[in-house]
Amino acid sequence: MATLLYSLGRAAFRRRGLFLAGWLLLIALVGGGMATFGSHLDSEATIPGSQSQKGIDILEKALPSSTGVTAQIVFRAPEGSTVNDPAYRSAIERTVAAAGKAPQVETAVDPFEAKSVSADRRTALAQVLYPIKRDALRDSSVEALEHIAFQARSSGLRAEVGGTIYSSAGLEVGIGEVIGLVVAVVVLIITFGSLLAAGLPLLTAVIGLVAGLLGLLLVSNIATVSSTAPSLALMVGLAVGIDYALLILSRHRTQLASGMDAEESAARATGTAGSAVVFAGLTVIVALSGLTVVGIPFLSVMGLAAAGTVLMAVLVAITLLPALLGFAGTRLRPRPGSRADRRERETGSGRRWNGGARWARLVTRRPLVTVVAVVIGLGVMAVPAAQLSLAMPDNGTAAPESTQRKAYDMISDAFGPGRNGRLLVLVQTADADPKAAATEVAKGIGDLRLPEVLSISAPQAGTDGRTAIVTVVPKAGPRAEETVRLVRDIRAATPDLGTAADAEVLVTGSTAAAIDVSDLLSDSLVPFAAIVVGLALLLLLLVFRSIVVPVKAAVGFLLSVGAAFGAVVAVFQWGWLADQLGVPTTGPVFSFMPIVLMAVLFGLAMDYEVFLVSRMREEYVHTGRHGQSVIAGSRHASRVVTAAALIMFAVFASFVTAEDLTLKPIALGLAVGIVVDAFVVRMTLVPAVLALVGNGAWWLPRWLDRLLPNLDMEGTKLDPPRQEAERRPVRALS
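^ that's the sequence the OP posted. Answer follows.
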């Protein structure tokens, strides 16, 4: 591996113009494709095999209006007035009539005819139906409906628009992300002491990210790409793109400071640090691709999209960065006598102990104490995770100032929270009258006397002569545990209800679908973790040729993810620091959060494992001294791991400022997880564990050693042959 990447790095350095032109041509091609075809992001989330999805598929043919996009226009009269007052009623009727003629609208239902007026007569709710899916709804149609609805405000009414016409925020970049980039630049300047050196990782990361995101958006024209996929791809791709370039550039600068030729240094940095980047990136890609095992297309696309940007980050780091190093030439060599020059020389030669080496000596002085303290501390941080509660997002999680959130709150206040999360009970018969069968099912549900039910509607017949639906309005909101229990109670009774009515009965609708997603994700966590961790352990076994190192890496990851989950629960469910972090409401977090966070954090945790332990392994292979290799590896890698972790933290923390609560908890969990994993697990627990096991850290059964290919990530084949007499005896860590 090192030899191959060494040759690639040398070729990129020598033919730098060709490599740069190739990347610019790639961006031009995908950019031109985007300009020609645009993008087609899909906010639809399907759950193959679930009861709710089966019901939705049936209703799409039998009663399309029940599964199409809906909007809600909520009107509220001023204090002391009612919506029945002539002036207000006239304004509402004019608005509803205009809404019925709005672009792409099928019909608008008058709230007075539908009896959708609150008990205090101050609030009226009009339904607007679109006979299309959300991805077919144009933004201009939503804006047109909002304009019509807001005109009612001129009469003194309060008017807001909600419903399924609104989806997640998708790809939005705001001031928070800009601040994250600024922090990354500051960290890079401090790390390298040079504007040129600091700019290269950022430049390569942006080029890789642009190519990856444009490619993803272009692919959305021929494949289903979820609207949240670009957000995750942006967050992960930016973080790893900077970090991978940082690792290679740091090795290059150290070698330049020691007097190495620029071309040879670029090739060697690509061969050694580039090997670590390839395998680190591969673990991230494996972890993100593992999201496909869940069986939810929406989630699979998110994982594959983010994996694609990580792949681009790796390719940029090992091809474009060496080319840019060729353009920079010796200008990246620290100025003789400068602070950066002294720091790089000391790091390369090991003549002095830097902060990383001193910390490693401290935590390995009494390694058992360190291990126990870390495990107990992270265990305490993980305690809140036991109360993790999951649900799908809805308009109740939108930004408080948005019209959909205001409409959601107005409906909850006037009609009860359950009006925002109605359940559809589908009744399908073979020969019998579906409306009569649905009436019998509705009566059966009423006879169950479920305390969570607020009301049960009269049946509505479909167009196929075999289908009807009954609408059940819960007392609690769509994300409440009471509503989850209600869905399960009705489903438990559907076999008997179906037998009595001689029909098939399914509980479906968006609320039931959200519950099915949460259940499927919960059931998938263990197999997902087993597959992803198993594949990553195999990769680490190949890289480090050790049994202890992969197992230790996995255990450390579990500690990090437990602490990250604990932080998410404390903020988003318990409300700790909620105001400071801009969390408008507490409650269950996004159902996809645990599995997405696990995938991303595992991949990034393995990045640090590879960055740090590869330097320890490299020292051990070259010197045969285990104790010194732990200290030396920490000395060499501490600065780059610290910088990488701070950059990733800044990038992820910047996304905590996003308004959409689907991304906020993932960003917070990743920010906390990165800090814990880098500084507590990798730079503290790892040296302590390696010190405890001694030379056994690099033990591998002989039969397994013969079976595994030698990937030579340490770059031993790049060095002149070493005589055994030059090796000193292995010494235990003092």
